[in-house]
Sequence to fold (191 residues):
Amino acid sequence: MMKPEIFQSCLRKTALLSLPVGLMLLSLPMPQAQAGNWNQFDVCVGQLKDSGVAADKAGTACSGALIPKELSECVVIVRRNSPIDADNALQGCYQVRRPIDLGNCVADIQRATLGGYTGDKTTTGTTTDSPSLAALNSCRKSLLPGRHSECVIALSRDTATYTPIKAMDTCLAAEDFPKDLFPAYVQQPVQ
Fold:
């Protein structure tokens, strides 16, 4: 058994030795302090560049974004979960109110319905979009991207009736007033 005097002496010596070491550790420069204070614009530009967006486009997009971190997070989510290129992901994410919801919408549809799907490409004007780009555009047009992806996934489970592209179109159309259910309803013009 150790005597109390010896224990207290050891405790004092340990405290005296650890105090200078602790002060020295506190005096070391932190990596963030060396590079300057990082803010949401720094994070946005860095994430966009890491995703494959050109530096000048990244700077322009981040400077015009309401919440830059959400814009870049959206691009990261889309790039990580789909074959969509960085420029298309940035364009889609930049044009929405809820960029992270859009990214999750695209990722959910890609994962649940488009995994290996390559058929039934959509034609818009003179260009043909891949199913993944169709998912990005569909999620971008939706007012509630989270709800939209759930709708697309549910309808796509009935493969005899709905292809993923048809499910996206049907779910988007349902966000408007459902004319198929109420064909006699005529909206009155607003005066």
Observations:
- The chain has one domain: 36-175.
- The beta strands are 122-124, 127-129.
